[in-house]
């Protein structure tokens, strides 16, 4: 019964993993580039911005990375056949 419930969660999540990871990595990458650009603008060129804005953007990049990482961890825990190795990339 537990294996059936794990399978009911695992297979749809595994099906959606590709597009979800792609979107999360895209957002994380764009936020990372934007945060680095803002850091250069604020500290390098003395732009008229608050000092905490680049750190908020970099924090969101890290949040997107963590969501993708936790999604993979959940998939590993929900693997209905724990004897098989699940390669996620």
| DSSP summary: helix tally | 2
**Beta fraction of the residues?**
under 5%
End-to-end separation in angstroms reads 29 Å
* Elements, N to C (H/E): HH
Give the fraction of residues assigned to helices.
over 70%
Looking at this protein, list some descriptive labels.
89 residues; mainly alpha; 2 helices; rod-shaped; transmembrane helix; transmembrane
What would you say this structure looks like, in words?
- The chain crosses the membrane at residues 22-45, 51-71.
- Keywords: Membrane, Transmembrane, Transmembrane helix.
- The protein has one domain (16-78).
- It contains two helices and no strands.
- With 89 residues, it is mainly α.
- 78% of the residues lie in helices and 0% in strands.
- The model has no long low-confidence stretch (mean pLDDT 89).
- It starts with a helix and ends in an 11-residue tail after the last helix.
């Amino acid at each position: 019964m537990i294996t059936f419930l794990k399978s009911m969660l695992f297979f749809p999540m595994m099906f959606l993993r590709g597009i979800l990871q792609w979107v999360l990595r895209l957002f994380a990458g764009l936020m990372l580039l934007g945060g680095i650009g803002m850091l250069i603008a604020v500290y390098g060129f003395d732009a008229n911005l608050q000092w905490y804005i680049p750190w908020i953007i970099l924090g969101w990049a890290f949040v997107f990375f963590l969501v993708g990482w936790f999604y993979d961890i959940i998939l590993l825990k929900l693997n209905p056949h724990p004897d098989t190795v699940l390669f996620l990339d």
